[in-house]
């Protein structure tokens, strides 16, 4: 009697881990780029260059010569969304083809794709609401969340699936979390400052009604808090002899904050020139990525090869990083 065996078909196009990680890194770069180009749309008053969505006009999906440079700028930014989808889609396909296929990596890659699609919808709502500052702010905050997921994907690919272990004492883990929360608060306050300022994206766009000077002071106070926490964290990590990667991450975060603070101060005293506001938006992304690097640097998933500064109860170390990691 002939025996029939089920054979699993081999993957014709195996994907290496290095290729998968490069695609994940491209996700990070692309999401930073879309924030900067989105800022250029607003800073050039091109936010309603295409006055409707998903079409650019009621009759056309593309810009027309009559819409001028503002239409070209807004339409160009919309086209970049397709680039983001292609990069994120390639990363998801690579995660599916990679062997062994890892559920955590696949879920993170799929989350990036879904997040970009959600951003496209939010962008459409932004246009439909005539650049209402609340929707514009949500649009920016979701971009920061996309950077978080993209960064988590990039780091997860280079890690095994073993539980995370803490590399620093528990009190320092708490300080890292507080610092990260302060970094997020600075971003949210910066969104409120933007919503009260002059760069609305269109001459007729409404503002959020907050006093620019008062909300700028709140933002500055949060920045001082963040810098103080980051300095304390850097000194504490050096004092306990934390791993070099954690100390470098803390130093990089502090340097990014100081550079961003200089740009913010100069743009404020020079009445918010568009070039400096754009640089400040790029700086926001870099500070946020430095914050994420700090979060990831205090834990590891690789087997321990030397003694580390672990907390008394190692069974609680798996919650160091966000749950998606």
Write the layout of secondary structure elements.
Blueprint: H1 17-43, H2 68-97, H3 103-128, H4 133-157, E1 165-166, H5 170-196, H6 212-239, H7 244-269, H8 274-297, E2 299-300
Antiparallel strand pairs: 1-2
Helix pairs in contact: 1-2, 1-4, 1-8, 2-3, 3-4, 4-5, 4-8, 5-6, 5-8, 6-7, 7-8
Question: Can you describe what's shown?
Answer:
With 325 residues, the protein is an all-alpha fold. The protein has two domains: 13-158, no CATH class; 164-325, no CATH class. It contains eight helices and two strands; from the N terminus they run ααααβααααβ. It has helices spanning 17-43, 68-97, 103-128, 133-157, 170-196, 212-239, 244-269, 274-297; strands at 165-166, 299-300. A two-stranded antiparallel ribbon has the order 1-2. Helix 1 runs antiparallel to helix 8, helix 5 runs antiparallel to helix 6 and helix 7 packs antiparallel against helix 8. The longest helix is centred in the first third of the chain and has 30 residues, at 68-97.
């Amino acid at each position: 009697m002939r025996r029939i065996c089920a054979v699993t078909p081999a993957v014709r196009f195996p994907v290496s881990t290095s290729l998968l990680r490069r695609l994940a890194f491209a996700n990070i770069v692309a999401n930073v780029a879309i924030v900067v180009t989105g800022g250029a749309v607003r800073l050039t008053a091109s936010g309603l260059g295409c006055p409707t969505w998903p079409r650019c006009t009621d009759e056309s999906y593309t810009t027309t010569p009559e819409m001028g440079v503002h239409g070209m700028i807004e339409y160009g930014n919309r086209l970049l969304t397709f680039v983001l989808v292609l990069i994120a889609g390639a990363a998801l396909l690579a995660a599916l083809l990679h062997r062994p296929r890892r559920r955590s990596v696949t879920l993170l890659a799929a989350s990036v794709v879904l997040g970009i699609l959600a951003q496209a919808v939010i962008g459409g709502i932004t246009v439909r609401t005539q650049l209402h500052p609340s929707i514009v702010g949500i649009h920016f905050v979701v971009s920061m969340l996309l950077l978080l997921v993209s960064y988590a994907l990039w780091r997860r690919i280079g890690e095994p699936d073993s539980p995370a272990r803490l590399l620093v004492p528990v009190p320092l883990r708490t300080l890292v979390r507080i610092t990260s929360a302060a970094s997020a608060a600075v971003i949210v306050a910066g969104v409120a400052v933007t919503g009260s300022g002059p760069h609305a994206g269109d001459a007729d766009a409404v503002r959020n009604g907050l006093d620019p000077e008062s909300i700028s002071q709140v933002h500055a106070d949060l920045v001082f808090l963040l810098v103080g926490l980051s300095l304390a964290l850097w000194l504490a990590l050096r004092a306990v002899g934390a791993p070099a990667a954690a100390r470098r991450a803390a130093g990089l975060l502090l340097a990014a904050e100081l550079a961003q603070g200089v740009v913010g101060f100069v743009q404020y005293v020079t009445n918010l020139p568009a070039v400096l506001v754009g640089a400040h938006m790029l700086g926001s992304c870099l500070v946020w990525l430095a914050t994420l690097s700090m979060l990831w640097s205090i834990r590891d998933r690789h087997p321990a090869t030397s003694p580390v500064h672990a907390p008394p109860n190692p069974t609680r170390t798996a919650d160091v990083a966000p749950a998606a990691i």
